[in-house]
Amino acid sequence: MKKILISPSILSGDFSQLGNEIKKLEKAGADMIHVDVMDGHFVPNLTIGPPVIKSLRKHTNLPFDVHLMISPVHRYIKNFAEAGSDIITIHPEATDNLDESINLIKSLGKKVGVSLNPNTPINIIEDFLSKIDLVLIMSVNPGFGGQKFMPEVLEKIKKINEIKIKKNMTFDIEVDGGINFDNSKSVIEAGANILVSGTTIFYDNKGDIKKNIDTLKTN
Which of 23, 53, 87, 101 has an alpha carbon within 20 to 30 A of 77's alpha carbon? Predict the structure, then answer.
């Protein structure tokens, strides 16, 4: 049975208490910390940058799973690597040369993720799958937390997983967007092994973070 990892999104946390929120997530059994970086350009929202990530780094030893929703992304990769990111995930639409951006992330000693928006076809990244560590499937249109899961992406998760198995590859399949207790099982069955969740983890069951993480893993 595959191990399911939970990467809580701090986008749903209390931004005035992010250090403490991260400590609570670690204590509750989170496997990594998902950091959504938005620039108000590639997606219609603004969040945090490298200085905040650097300041949060001291609060936990958990891997920082940093999702860059910024364009042009290439020029900022080094800043986020130096700030303490462990996994850096980028969108193919946000770089002029996906291969160069992947190589840059790897050269900085970080794991590489590539993200697919709901309308982005798999074939855009298929030639790069052997070089990356993670495929992030967006199950909402990125930009804001609390959106409703798009069930049509389940087919995309299945197809990515089929390619992974057929070619004997080892990349993780992560899914982000509207993940909750009602859909987590179908996402895992489709092939995902990392679930990103914000609203459900922070607010369901009266904010019982440990219970929510455990339920997502075993639901």
Answer: 23
83-109 pLDDT, tens digit per residue, is: 999 999 999 999 999 999 999 999 999
Q: Would you call 39 a catalytic residue per the annotation?
A: no
What's the structural domain count of the chain?
1
Compute the half-sphere exposure of residue 94: CA atoms within 13 Å on the CB side of its CA. Answer: 26
Active site residue 176: yes
Between CA 46 and CA 73 the distance in angstroms is: 15
Copy the structure tokens of residue 11: 């986008």
Strand ranges across the sheet with 172-176:
5-8, 194-197, 172-176, 134-138, 111-116, 87-90, 64-69, 33-38
**Which one from 36, 39, 65, 133 is the annotated catalytic residue?**
36
Domain range for 58:
5-218
Q: Which candidate in 31, 39, 133, 176 is catalytic?
A: 176
Q: What distance in Å separates the CA atoms of residue 32 and residue 148, rounded to the nearest whole number?
A: 23
Start-to-end C-alpha separation, the chain: 14
- The structure tokens listed for 94 are 């946000």
CATH number of 205's domain? 3.20.20.70
Strands of 74-129, DSSP E: 87-90, 111-116
